[in-house]
User: Which sequence fits this backbone?
């Protein structure tokens, strides 16, 4: 057979195959589009924020991810996950994690080594999904295999991706007439054995103070003035002090003020024209930079900082010697750190009787760390 004849026969076969592959490709494309349509609410676009809605009852307020109610499967899972109420505890520990199983196990180990007395305790591990709705298998298995020695224990995977916003804002549903203490811990923390003893004391002492929105457990923080980001230092003669920016390395909300914040947040956040800026605060500069990069989904805290600024609220910080904290942060690779991997401060390892003597009058600092009232 000549080369010309062979080439002609080959071209003829390719012409016959062309329509076949075109038809198959079209069918596959239609099927793919149909699958995406059915699961549209389950697959948020990259770098988009999940919106939230508030559910109010006579007893509690709860934020839930906002979804298209036509997607009944997702709606049912969300209702089952977020809108149920279990018992009430003296302490509810909420651990939020995504895919750092080793960090999670280090934190859970420290929680097992902490002191709780005879109080009722509930430990919950909330696991977020990736933006393509994948649950990290190793993290889920590690959490499921853990045994908590001091009370009830639950592992709760989110039914859809919620990001840091959802992890912080949908995981605790405080009751109106409750005395339950909650603490929210990200996975790259370690707690002091005395963290709960401290929380019991400050909640008992200051929950009735209207300008106290919660309690930071970290021993180290920066000043948040955009002119000075040096290390924040409390007054030497005060065991605790108030500062206008929350600490996220272990935060225990004041229940009443947290409920007001949860009520306000979805309205402000879902308004695309609302900007949560705070004058002269470096967090505003960070947020504006993230807005340009489309990365604001990793910075929920500015909304709390903005709300506190609008309502003249403060967070209570401890002031132990050498910046010892009730938590320490390992600054592991994730949304906020890359290639740091060192602890922020040492842990408080000894509890002294004088730590029980909390002042009646609190010292207020501004974002530059200067005393403005005492």
Assistant:
């Amino acid at each position: 057979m000549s080369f010309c004849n062979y080439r002609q026969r080959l071209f003829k076969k390719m012409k016959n195959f062309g329509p076949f592959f075109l038809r198959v490709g079209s069918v596959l494309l239609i099927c793919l589009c149909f699958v995406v349509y059915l699961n549209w609410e389950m697959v948020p676009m990259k770098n988009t924020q999940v919106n939230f809605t508030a559910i109010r009852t006579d007893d509690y307020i709860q934020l839930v991810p906002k979804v298209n109610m036509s997607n009944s499967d997702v709606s049912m899972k969300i209702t089952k996950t977020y809108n149920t109420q279990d018992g009430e505890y003296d302490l509810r520990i909420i651990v939020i994690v995504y895919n750092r199983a080793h960090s999670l196990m280090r934190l859970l180990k420290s929680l097992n080594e902490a002191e709780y007395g005879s109080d009722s305790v509930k430990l919950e591990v909330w696991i977020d999904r990736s933006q393509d709705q994948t649950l990290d298998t190793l993290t889920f298995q590690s959490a499921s295999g853990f045994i908590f020695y001091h009370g009830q224990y639950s592992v709760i995977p989110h039914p859809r991706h919620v990001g840091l916003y959802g992890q912080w804002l949908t995981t605790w549903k405080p009751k109106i007439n409750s005395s339950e203490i909650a603490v929210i811990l990200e996975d790259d923390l370690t707690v002091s054995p005395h963290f709960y003893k401290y929380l019991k004391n400050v909640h008992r002492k200051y929950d009735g103070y209207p300008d106290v929105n919660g309690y930071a457990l970290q021993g180290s923080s920066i000043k948040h003035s955009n002119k000075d980001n040096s290390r924040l230092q409390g007054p030497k003669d005060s065991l605790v002090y108030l500062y206008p920016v929350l600490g996220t390395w272990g935060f225990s909300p004041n229940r009443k003020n947290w409920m007001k914040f949860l009520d306000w947040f979805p309205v402000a956040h879902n308004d695309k024209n609302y900007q949560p800026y705070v004058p002269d605060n470096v967090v505003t500069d960070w947020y504006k930079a993230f807005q340009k990069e489309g990365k604001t989904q990793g910075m929920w805290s500015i909304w709390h900082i903005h709300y506190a600024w609008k309502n003249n609220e403060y967070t209570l910080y401890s002031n132990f010697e050498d910046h010892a904290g009730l938590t320490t942060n390992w600054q592991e690779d994730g949304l906020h750190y890359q290639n740091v991997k060192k602890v922020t401060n040492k842990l408080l390892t000894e509890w002294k009787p004088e730590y029980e003597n909390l002042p009646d009058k609190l010292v207020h600092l501004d974002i530059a760390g200067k005393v403005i009232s005492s």
